[in-house]
Amino acid sequence: MIEMQRLGCGAIDRSHIGSHVELNGWINRRRDHGGLVFIDLRDRDGLTQVVFDPEHSAFDEAHSLRHEDVIRVRGAVRARPAGTENPRLKTGQVEVEALELQVLSRSEVPPFPVNLDEDVDEGLRLKYRYLDLRRPRLVRNLTVRHKYLKAVRDFFDANDFLEIETPVLIKPTPEGARDYLVPARLTRGSFYALPQSPQILKQLCMVAGLGRYMQIARCFRDEDLRSDRQPEFTQIDVEMSFVEQEDIMRLMERMMIQTFESTLGVTLEKPFPRLSFGEAVRRFGSDKPDLRFGLELADAGAIFAGTEFAVFKSTLESGGSVIALRWPGGGASSRREFDAMVERAKEHGAKGLVWIALGADGVKSPVAKFLDDATLARLREATGAETGDAILIVADKTATAHSVAGKLRLDVAERADLRDPKAFAFCWVYDFPLFELDEETGHWTFTHHPFTSPAPGHADLMESDPGRARALHYDMVLNGVELGSGSIRITTPELQQRVFRALGMSDEDIQERFGFLLEAFRYGVPPMGGMALGVDRIIQIMVGESSIRDVIAFPKNQQGRDLMLEAPSPATKANLEELGLRLTGEQR
Ligand code: ASP
Question: Domain tally for the chain?
Answer without folding.
Answer: 2
